[in-house]
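ok so I'm stuck.
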Amino acid sequence: MLTKRIIPCLDIKNGRTVKGINFLDLRDAGDPVALGARYAQQGADELVFLDISATSENRKTFADLVKKISRHVNIPFTVGGGISSVQDVAALLDSGADKVSINSAAVRDPQLIDDLSKAFGSQFVVVAIDARKADNQWWVHTHGGSRITNKKLFSWAKEAQERGAGEILFTSMDHDGTKKGFALDPLAKLHELLSIPVIASGGAGRPEHFAEAFTLGKADAALAASLFHFAELGIPDLKKYLHHLNIPVRIPLENSINHSEIISTINGIDN
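replied:
not stuck anymore, here's the structure
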C-alpha cells in the first residue's frame, strides 16, 4: 500500500510566507526558506511553494528564491505561480524544483497541460484547482481565487488528467483557512473519477482531519499551511497519530516511532 503524504504548503507573497482565511486577510507566517528547511527536517514528505501573487500581478516566480529553498531541503518540492509556458517550467526545474503546479494558465489554455506533459513527463505536472460550491456545483476559480470561471471541478479535473496531468491539487475555497476539516465529498468523488493522485487542500485544523481526508476522502496526500506555520501541530506528532490509526505514512529513521510514546502522544493531541 502506498504511503499517504503530508505536504506543508508555503504561500508566498513578496518573498514571505503568508496565510489567510478563504484566500483573504493574509498575515505573515515567516521566511519560506527557514520554514521549508524546518519541515524537511521534521519529516514532511513534500513541499509546495506557491507564489500566490505572481499570476494576478503578471509576474514570474523568482527562480533565485526557488534555488535558495531547494538548497535547504532534501524532499520533493513543487513550485507554482506565474507559470504559463514550457520555458517557465524549464527554468524552474533547472532551479531545483521537482514538480510544477499550474492553475490559472491551464484554465486559460488547457493545451499547456499537454505541452508540459510531453516536454517533461506527466510526473512533473501538477494541476491545481481552486473551487467553491454554489448552486450545488463546484465552480473553478482562478487568479488566487478571485475570478470565477465557467468550468466545473469534476469535468475539469478529468480533462486535466486526460491531457497529461500527473496529480490534481484540489483546494476547497469554502474550507480554506477555516480549520474545520477538508471537503470530503468532492475528494471522494475525485478519487472515483481519476486514476492519478489527488492532494487534499483547504480546512486542516486537527489531526483527525487528515485521517478523514485519507480514509473518507480517499486522498493520496494532504496539504496544510497555517497549522504547521504557526506550530499548532508538529509533523512528527501528526505522523504518530496517523500511524496509530494504521494509516500508512513514511516515518524517517531519525524520527522512528517509539511505540511506548504513541499512546501519550495521541492522548496529548486528543485532549
